[in-house]
Design a protein that fits this description.
There is one protein chain. The chain is mostly helical and about 400 residues long. About 60% of the residues lie in helices and about 5% in strands. It contains 16 helices and six strands. The protein has a two-stranded antiparallel sheet with strand order 1-2. Strands 3-4 form a two-stranded antiparallel sheet. A hairpin with a 2-residue loop joins strand 1 and strand 2. The chain is globular. The two termini are about 40 Å apart.
């Protein structure tokens, strides 16, 4: 109470005290009114569900919906709800009804429908990377950019043995950092961050950065801040009115996240300009070269093409943000799990020594001869799923899925 007294200026404090005194005789009437509102909300929600063919689900509470009943393991809570309501059900989170797809068949059915490939207009990433083709802009731009990014990455060796040498080289740099510890304990997260993003650097910029490079350390720090702070902004998805509250951008971490994205953008801009100045269309070095060549080709066909400077830098931000963090987190979990289960670690180590030995580097094809290690990796990703929930989709038109009617503008 002393803390509140210091925060509230005397005039406001006096007004609040006067208000409390005036309404205190009616406290029971107010309580009855709140209970009546709650009951009316429950009855109204129940009747609305009965009259519609909307997917069933728990009702929840006024204002907050079902959010108070969800734990930190939201995906596990939703699995339990799926067992009760079926492969397609709805949950009210805050002021938004969210349709949940639970089960391989229903997900496969839904994702083949173009009406379900929209992006939510209140996606918090629009505050930080508004030109993102993958998370913010409409489905046609997403399809066009995704097609090009995937193909260009394949051409550069992603998903093929062509990129193995670069990955192995980066692993050796990481091992050199560990050796310098001389057997002393170390939190592998710190050296693992530049190692992961260096693999992305090789694809996007055609080069790697030393672990102690101040520019690369600045990049890694702000990638971490952006990923951690961005999760705080998702409240606007479920409570859109939050953004109208004074100073909401501060407690929702919007300003902090935007500042991190601005630093990341300033890191990428000179790298892209270097590529513009040294571009040779006959010698494609990396993703930026590929995009610059495509930009010129598309501009000749259509002056209003979406292949432009802003989309390029947004794509680079998305590739780094999604690529480096996910791989690093997966590897960290694997390291922690091996430390927690030494018996499993010994079996994996024994299989590595038997199949690969100590005289050569591992190759992706070795995985076929290492069933135990492969099984451990798959079980690790199942057990510690780093993205348990898919990105939120948004309906572009009324549609029927799994026998239920899902209206337009539904999440």
């Amino acid at each position: 109470m002393e803390y509140l007294s210091r925060l509230i200026i005397p005039s406001s404090k006096s007004g609040i005290q006067k208000l409390i005194l005036e309404i205190s005789p009616f406290q029971y009437q107010i309580l009855v009114g709140i209970c009546g509102f709650f009951v009316a909300y429950l009855i109204g929600s129940f009747i609305k569900r009965l009259r519609s063919n909307f997917p069933p689900g728990p009702i929840g509470l006024p204002i907050f919906g079902y959010l108070p009943f969800l734990s930190e393991n939201t995906h596990l809570d939703l699995i339990e709800l799926g067992k009760k309501y079926g492969d397609i059900f709805s949950v009210r989170l805050g002021s938004q009804n969210i349709v949940i797809l639970h089960g391989a068949e229903i997900i496969r059915e839904a994702l083949t429908k173009p009406e379900l490939l929209g992006r939510h207009p209140e996606n918090p990433l629009k505050y930080f990377n508004p030109s993102s083709a993958f998370f913010v802009r409409d489905v046609n731009i997403w399809k066009e950019q995704r097609r090009f990014v995937v193909q260009s990455m394949k051409d550069l060796g992603l998903g093929r043995t062509k990129i193995e040498d670069e990955v192995v080289d980066e692993i050796n740099h990481f091992l050199d950092v560990l050796k310098k510890q001389n057997g002393q304990p170390i939190d592998v997260k710190k050296p693992l961050s530049p190692s992961m993003s260096n693999n992305i650097c090789a694809l996007v910029f055609g080069k790697r950065y030393e672990f102690d490079d101040p520019d690369r350390q600045l990049l890694d720090t702000n990638l971490d801040v952006a990923n951690e702070s961005a999760s705080q902004t998702t409240g606007t998805l479920f409570f859109p009115w939050l953004r109208f509250i004074p100073f909401s951008s501060k407690f929702l971490q919007i300003e902090k996240t935007r500042a991190a994205y601005n630093v990341i953008r300033k890191f990428f801009e000179p790298e892209i300009q270097k590529h513009v100045d040294s571009l040779d269309p006959r010698n494609i070095r990396d993703f930026i070269d590929s995009y610059l060549v495509e930009m010129k080709s598309q501009a000749e066909k259509n002056p209003n093409t979406n292949f432009n400077d802003e989309t390029l830098i947004s794509n680079v931000i998305d590739i780094f943000g999604a690529g480096s963090e996910t791989v690093r987190t997966s590897i960290l979990w694997f390291v922690y799990t091996m430390a927690a289960f030494p018996d499993v670690q010994k079996k994996v180590q024994q299989e590595i020594l038997e199949i690969i030995g100590t005289e050569r580097n591992p190759e992706f094809l070795d995985m076929k001869s290492m069933p135990y290690t492969h099984a451990v990796l798959l079980e690790q990703m199942r057990w510690k799923t780093i993205v348990p929930l898919n990105l939120m989709h948004y309906t572009l038109a009324d549609i029927k899925v799994g026998g239920y009617d899902i209206p337009k503008t539904q999440s």
